[in-house]
């Protein structure tokens, strides 16, 4: 409410458009909160028209061409769809059930990249571990013929702080279990909800393959197994999956520019990803991000004068999947052909945490306390955005390869109090997006990006190549 009242005051008191960057950025914040529907219309059409958009699928490719048409319609220049090949993965039919002590179905879903179960199904006794580290302590061969379960819960937190730590179970648990002889792998979903909706997500290929069938249990079903074990029961389960691979599947990323008016060769890159998991419609992950950065950049492009630097939109493809030879195929597909131009990428940002309110701005440590950060916080303050406690790190999955190549990253941190209730589940649908919060995101992005793109601040640490 405080943020909305402050914005109302801005709407009344903001003077006519001025030339200096901070005034223009402030006005963009105000304009983004006046009920424009670009972001909502885009995420609504994307998720309704195309539904789920698994990497390498026909729906993902169609969405990329639709998105390119939207960028052209909105006035972006140099719009292009860039195709590249990946190993696709299709879920097929799947089921998980307890056989002993008494038969009962379990709500579970295969992890991305998991192979089909040999012979149609596998059965085995469950051996549970409290963490990935506990699994690693199991002796070689000790899980022969068994199914490993890592039962590590993700804590609920305002910024999703536990996701990276608990997510390691999904990434590395299957290979660690296979090394010790397991024939299958189960894990508690990486999520903060209590619904019988399991959370999928990719595991890692090891030596070019995912070694054993691997599944995520919904939180209540992981609890069910834990209670059976607490009663002294030995639990035996049956796993079934017809998952398959599609080598040579085609995915795409889309680029479009708002050309700069004075230093057009310098690029401020805004990223989000078009692909989604197959269970829901990819509204919060990451249709919202696609819509937010598009609406913000479009608003900037409508100014009578463009900012000095070029603003580049990148809708990444295949963000959700790992590959037999890589864990960051999406970001590298954009970066690698442009390595010679990395010095001209002055800043990268990514929107990939849904549409709940932005609460903090993270800038690299060397910019803490700078004149730029102070101006940014003056612009973002009316939106109830404060300085982040932690630096931006690698910025996000898609822009991480750019950061590895020396491009600075900013992060507009969002509240994640609800995000991991729905993340990677069948509940990732349009109704989870709050339109007021979506507008707040667009406002924050528009104001901050104008300030960054219209100025001449060098965001790299002193002494590094420009």
TrEMBL record:
Q: Which domain of life is it from?
A: Bacteria
- Please provide the record's keywords in A-Z order: Carboxypeptidase, Endoplasmic reticulum, Glycoprotein, Golgi apparatus, Hydrolase, Lysosome, Metal-binding, Metalloprotease, Protease, Secreted, Signal, Zinc, Zymogen
What are the transmembrane regions?
A: none
Q: Does the keyword Isomerase apply?
A: no
Q: What is its main location?
A: endoplasmic reticulum
According to its UniProt entry, the protein's GO biological process terms are: proteolysis
Output the Gene Ontology cellular-component terms.
extracellular region; lysosome
**Cell compartments where the protein resides:** Endoplasmic reticulum; Golgi apparatus; Lysosome; Secreted
Cleaved signal peptide residues: 1-18
Question: Which InterPro entries is this protein grouped with?
Answer: CPQ, Peptidase_M28
Q: Name one GO molecular function term.
A: metallodipeptidase activity
Q: Tell me the ranges covered by the Peptidase M28 domain, including all copies.
A: 254-446
Q: How does it assemble?
A: Homodimer. The monomeric form is inactive while the homodimer is active.
Write down what this protein is called: Carboxypeptidase Q
């Amino acid at each position: 409410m405080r943020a909305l009242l402050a914005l109302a005051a801005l709407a009344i008191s903001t003077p006519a458009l001025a030339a200096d960057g901070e005034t223009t950025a402030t006005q963009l914040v105000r304009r983004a909160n006046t009920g424009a529907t670009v972001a909502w219309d885009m995420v609504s059409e994307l998720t309704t028209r195309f539904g789920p958009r698994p990497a390498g699928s026909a729906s993902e490719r169609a969405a990329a061409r639709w998105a390119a048409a939207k960028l052209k319609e909105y006035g972006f220049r140099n719009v292009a769809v860039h195709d590249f090949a990946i190993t696709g993965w299709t879920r097929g039919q799947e089921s998980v059930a307890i056989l002993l002590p008494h038969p009962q179905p379990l709500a579970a879903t295969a992890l991305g990249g998991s192979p089909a179960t040999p012979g149609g199904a596998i059965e085995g006794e469950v051996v549970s571990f409290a963490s990935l580290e506990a699994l690693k302590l199991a002796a070689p061969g000790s899980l022969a013929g068994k199914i490993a379960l890592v039962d590590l819960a993700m804590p609920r937190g305002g910024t999703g702080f536990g996701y990276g730590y608990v997510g390691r179970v999904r990434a590395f648990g299957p290979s660690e279990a296979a090394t010790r002889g397991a024939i299958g792998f189960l894990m508690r979903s990486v999520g903060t909800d209590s619904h019988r909706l399991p959370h999928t997500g990719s595991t890692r290929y090891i030596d070019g393959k995912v070694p054993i069938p691997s599944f995520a249990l919904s939180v209540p079903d992981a609890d069910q197994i834990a209670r059976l074990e607490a009663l002294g029961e030995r639990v035996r389960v049956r796993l079934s999956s017809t998952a398959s691979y599609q080598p040579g599947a085609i995915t795409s990323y889309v680029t479009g520019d708002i050309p700069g008016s004075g230093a057009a060769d310098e690029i401020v890159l805004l990223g989000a990803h078009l692909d989604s998991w197959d269970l829901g419609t990819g509204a919060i992950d990451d249709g919202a991000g696609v819509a937010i950065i598009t609406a913000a950049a479009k608003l900037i492009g409508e100014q009578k004068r463009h900012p000095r630097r070029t603003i580049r939109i990148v809708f990444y493809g295949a963000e959700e999947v790992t590959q037999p030879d890589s864990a960051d195929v999406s970001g590298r597909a954009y970066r690698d052909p442009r390595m010679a131009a990395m010095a001209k990428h002055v800043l990268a940002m990514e929107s990939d945490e849904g549409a709940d309110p932005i609460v903090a701005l993270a800038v690299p440590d060397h910019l803490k306390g700078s004149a730029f950060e102070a101006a940014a916080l003056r612009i973002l303050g009316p939106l109830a955005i404060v300085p982040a406690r932690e630096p931006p790190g690698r910025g996000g999955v898609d822009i991480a390869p750019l950061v590895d190549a020396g491009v600075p990253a900013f992060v507009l941190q969002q509240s994640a109090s609800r995000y991991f209730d729905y993340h990677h589940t069948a509940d990732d649908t349009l109704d989870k997006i709050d339109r007021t919060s979506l507008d707040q995101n667009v406002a924050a992005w528009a104001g901050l990006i104008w300030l960054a793109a219209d100025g001449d601040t060098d965001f790299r640490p002193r002494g590094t190549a420009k």
